[in-house]
Amino acid sequence: MRIDLHAHSNASDGTDTPAELVAAAVAAGLDVVALTDHDTVAGHAGAAEAVRALPDGTRLTVVPGAELSCVVDGISMHLLAYLFDPAEPAFAAERELVRTDRFRRGRAIVERCRELGADISWEQVRRIAGDGSVGRPHIASALVEAGVVATVSDAFTPQWLANGGRADVRKHETDPVEAVRLVRAAGGVPVFAHPGAVKRGRTVSDRVIADLAAAGLAGLEVDHTDHDEQTRLRLRGLAADLGLLATGSSDYHGHRKTVRLGEHTTDPEVYQALLAQATGAPVIDAVTVGR
Question: What domain of life does the UniProt record list for this protein's source (predicted)?
Answer without folding.
Answer: Bacteria
